[in-house]
Amino acid sequence: MRAPTAGSGTREVFATRGAFIFAAIGSAIGLGNIWRFPYVAYESGGGAFIIPYLVALLTAGIPILFFDYALGHRSRGSAPLSFKAIHRRAEPIGWFQTGVATMIGIYYAAIIGWSAMYAWFSVTHAWGDDADSFFFGSFLQVPDLESGASAFGFDFVPAVLIPLVLVWVVILAILLGGVQKGIAGINKIFVPLLVILFAIMVVRALFLPGALTGLDALFTPDFAALADPQVWIAAYGQIFFSLSVAFGIMITYASYLKRRTNLTGSGMVVAFSNSGFEILAGIGVFAALGFMANAAGSGVDEVASSGIGLAFVAFPTLISQMPGGALFGILFFGSLFVAGVTSLISIVQVPVAAISDKFNISNRASVLLVGGIMAVVSILTMGTATGMYVLDTIDAFANNIGIVGAAVVALIVLVWLLRKLPVLKAHLNAVSSFKLGGYWTVTLGVITPVVLIYMLVSQIIEYAVNGYEGYPTAFLGVFGWGMIGLLVVLSFVLTAIRWPRATEERLQKTLEENDDLEQNPSTFGTEK
Predict the structure, then answer these.
(1) What is the DSSP string of 380-419?
(2) In angstroms, rounded to a whole number, what is the distance separating the alpha carbons of residues 350 and 253?
(3) Which of 261, 210, 206 is nearest to 433 (CA)?
(4) Which of 32, 227, 273, 489 is deepest in the core (most CB within 10 A)?
(5) Cα dihedral value 206, 211, 214, 215, nearest 10
């Protein structure tokens, strides 16, 4: 399906519900599933963590996923237009979510580039005997802040810059293909490829000496941990961050669905597919860490880590020690690359769709404009020796304050103040086979906002009192607090700009159709 021209009043759609599900799964399964979940589970009670994890999935993850689906599908519009459709004063929330997605996309591309380089490095074990020094020194060339170096500069690193440019070329090329040929087309290939790559890696890890030791460390339940409130907060945080909710992605993707689509059924498939992959990742990662601990003659707790340290320091060390390490490295970093690409295209599509709606330009024009600007900013900030510091700071503030804050404000405004949850529930029930009742209302009205408010306030206090990673206060003021403040200001500035008449007319027509659909749901068929 060709992208609509500006002013045509038409909007691209996913050709089938299956295409949407593949795209949504591709977005949800990202880097965090591979390098965050295993360690969070290990640190939070092992096998016992499954209990709070499932509770969080059922009381926060899936309900917010349905919330996002309802917003996007009801308006057939981007995040800002979807919030405007529910109430005009809610529009800034949509722009703030769009801004958060933009900032995440700017640094996310860099990690994908690193993954591509490390897949190549795996062939020759380029990191040598010291994976830590190679990653931060030889590869990224990160300056030492303790020696007085600046935390921000424009000293470009070719080994980082070149793959970063190529990643953006790939991402923009995919998005220029449109919703069906570009987004849906690449996810139909990349999601199965990711599962195959990672499954092969997991099987290989399970046959390594010491693999069972790693699995014992991960899955041995510590039920005493369930009495620790932080374990439950960790479960909600993991579910919240891994499902791509509350920063415009699922709102945007749902807006491309056909008029009558089984939203709740699709959401269940996406949510449980995401969780299933996280458990698979846990098995693969800890089987490998068990081998690493066995080879070093140490405990799993001494080699276990998460995030960038796990991917680019611990695993390269592991690859050097194991037989057939080159193949294992290609599979692991190839998986990171594929998972990153499917997530990044969904992230970039959020601001692309928002600008397309707001200024009534085609999707292709918006890709070139918005995607081009994002690529330039990403290359200028992440392709440098100090890119690691910028990336780390934006990641922490965008996720822990930006996404959580956006979710808190959205729930408080739409559920508590405007009382629009019945409207969204009516829409979901009109188009879905699995009907929602009082349970959904209670989770979004009480449980989820209370947990998220606690997470948000705790994190704000932590950053305000202790800073972050020892970075200079001025640096955090620009790339941390300053970024959040700028996004808030821009949200109101963009809201003040009038919507084009064509967009307003399209929205009004859509809402009238929805009224008819919600009042007479039995007259419409459901897409299977």
Answers:
(1) HHHSBTTHHHHHHHHHHHIIIIIIHHHHHHHHIIIIIIS-
(2) 9
(3) 261
(4) 32
(5) 50
d(CA 369, CA 100): 18
Strand partners, 384: 156
The pLDDT assigned to 527 comes to 54
Q: Provide the pLDDT confidence category of residue 520 given band limits of 50, 70 and 90.
A: confident
User: How far apart are alpha carbons 222 and 43 in whole angstroms?
Assistant: 10
Size of the chain in residues: 528
With CA atoms as reference, report the closest residue to 381 among 154, 123, 108, 130: 154
Among the listed residues 66, 28, 26, 36, the one whose alpha carbon sits nearest the alpha carbon of residue 400: 36
Q: Write the pLDDT tens digit of every residue in 173-202.
A: 999 999 999 999 999 999 999 999 999 999
End-to-end CA distance of the chain: 20
455/230 Cα distance (integer angstroms):
10
pLDDT in tens, 235-278: 999 998 889 999 999 999 999 999 888 999 999 999 999 999 99
Of all residues in the chain, what percent carry a pLDDT higher than 70? 97
Q: So what's the pLDDT on residue 220?
A: 93
* Residue 391 pLDDT > 90: yes
Mean pLDDT of all residues belonging to the chain: 93
* Half-sphere CA count of 64, side-chain side, radius 13 A: 31
- Cβ-based neighbours of 29, under 8 Å, separated by 6 or more: 191, 194, 273, 274, 277, 339, 342, 343
Tokens matching residue 469:
């990673």
Residue 28 DSSP SS3: helix
Decide: 237 and 451 in contact? Cβ < 8 Å: no
